[in-house]
Amino acid sequence: MKKEQRRYRAATLLWHSVENRYIEPGEEITLYHLAKEQVDKLLRMNAIVPVEVKDGTDDQCDEPEKLQG
Amino acid sequence: MAQTTNAMSLKNCKVEVSTNGTSWTDISGFANSIEVSGGERQIGEAYTFDGDTALLTSGKREPVEVTVRVVYTEGTSEPFEVVRAAYEDGSSVYVRWSPKGGTAGNFLFTTAAGLVSSLTYPAGEVGGDPVMVEFTLKTPSITKGVVA
Predict the structure, then answer these.
(1) How far apart are CA A41 and CA B106, in angstroms?
(2) What is the pTM of this model?
């Protein structure tokens, strides 16, 4: 099962309300403190872009039994 | 294009000040007005014999002035005292505000380090109105960001 993307890259200057610091464009951040609707809003605004999560390796698979043919 | 339905007033504006650009104090419970002026970009012009219009060249932007009106109070960490100290010793102050309230997705406008160019001390007439004071911050620029 593909893991939910929770890392994002700032596409504009952001104020991280939990870390209490400014995030420069290009910096990777987590937004666990935000509800899905709030994250979606930031995505629609192009304020953030999702960072691809690497998958396909055994130790990252949530259902290892599915790898067995 | 159809008329917008996204207009807003400043009734929920969140205003904050800082003396270091890192640690911010919410003064929304003290402030009731914020005005911005200045910031004009210098633009040069020249005319030539040939051609009917001016040649324009872009120069630098002039400083911006942000004027905030706050209720006068005497608490050490409250806006009047914080800004008064910066005004009198010439130290830096930052102001930022979020017109829509400062929640995730709202725009946030932050000044660069500025200097308090003017401050009104408490004054007025006999009457029942709260004393209001005003300070003006002169700053090189304002940067727009988004609250996350």
Answers:
(1) 10
(2) 0.88
CA distance A65 to chain B (A): 38
- For A34-63, the pLDDT digits (tens) are 999 999 999 999 999 999 766 655 444 445
- Among candidates B85, B75, B143, which has minimal Cα distance to B113? B143
DSSP single-letter state for residue B69: E
Residues 6+ apart with CB under 8 A from B113: B21, B92, B93, B94, B139
- Chain B residues within 8 A of A47 when measuring between CB atoms: 105, 146, 148
Contact B82, B19 (CB under 8 A): yes
Could you report the average pLDDT of every consecutive run of 10 residues in chain B (148 residues)? 96 98 97 98 98 98 98 97 98 98 97 98 95 98 98
